[in-house]
Give the backbone structure.
Amino acid sequence: DSSQGERQRQPDGEARIAEAVRALREGRLVILPTETVYGLAADASNPQAVAAVYEAKGRPSFNPLIAHVADAAAARRIANFDPRAEALAARFWPGPLTLVMPVLDTAAVCDLARAGLDTVAVRAPAHPLTHALLSNFGGPVVAPSANRSGRPSPTTCADAAEETGDSAAVALDGGACAIGLESTVVSLLDEARLLRPGAVTRAEIEAVIGPLAEAEADARRSPGRLARHYAPNLPVRLDAAAPEADEAYLAFGPSPAGARVFNLSPAGDLKEAAANLFGFLRAADRSGASGIAVAPIPHEGLGEAINDRLKRAAGFVG
Ligand code: TXA
Ligand code: MG
């Protein structure tokens, strides 16, 4: 429709940000861009608004949300920031790293946002539009990826609108997400643990705070580690050297072109592959294929996060 067209042409300037801030204050939802993926945002202190986020996503209410803040100063007001958090925030914020810490302000991030836990996941995103939104709003904003629960995360405003747009009062279009994979989630509750591999690699984190322990099997501490997640509609087959007759193919590195071949990175670059991953899963889903075959992806660096998402897209436990 024409308002969608307007939105594409209009630079999302101060007026759009003011409109989004107003919507959040009124308890309504906002689709917002981050450098990782698009989020479906609500005022973290407003239980009704947070409930609307769970409902729009079809997300089980035992899976807590990330509180997004403008900077470390805002994070210190809601969470117990220890020296490891200080070091990681100084190195990676604003940016694609989420820290799980003991919660301090249980009103600013309401119980429902934390799924009743006494901990809170916090991140300061780098996208300029969302940074401006968070600074102007003042308080923490929950923003899970704007997909319906279990589906691939949206990396464009159009994909976000298709997933959960009906529930949002405002959609801020900040272009295609530069990274395309969700933030890395690190728990700092006892030993530092990697709960979700992501855009900041394990090695980059270990360079700052030393070795990471494995995420515990205890699902109450890692509620987001669901087996089938990030999934397209079609079945996904991993480590495929080539597609079968009716399959779409997500290639990596030099590979013959074809009608349903989507090359994540012809040059074999993991950053490029990460940025293309969710959009290509969606495109392959729409291609009329019988299934989606995916080339092997090297496991180093960003490859850990890409393989984590692919495993879950294929329905295997992590
Ligand atoms: O890149 C991102 O992090 C995106 C953008 C929009 O910021 N957001 C995102 O949110 O991926 P979501 O809700 O899709 O994923 C949040 C993850 C889930 O795996 C959830 O279980 C975990 O963080 N999480 C949130 N709070 C937690 C807590 N208190 N303890 C352990 N895990 C938590
Ligand atoms: Mg998500």
Summary: The pocket of threonylcarbamoyladenylate (ligand 1) is lined by residues 34, 36-37, 39, 63-66, 96, 98, 100, 114, 117, 119-121, 125, 143-145, 182-183, 185, 195-196, 222-224 (CB under 6 Å). Residues 1-9 have pLDDT under 50 and may be disordered. The first strand starts at residue 29 and ends at 32. The two ends are 41 Å apart (CA to CA).
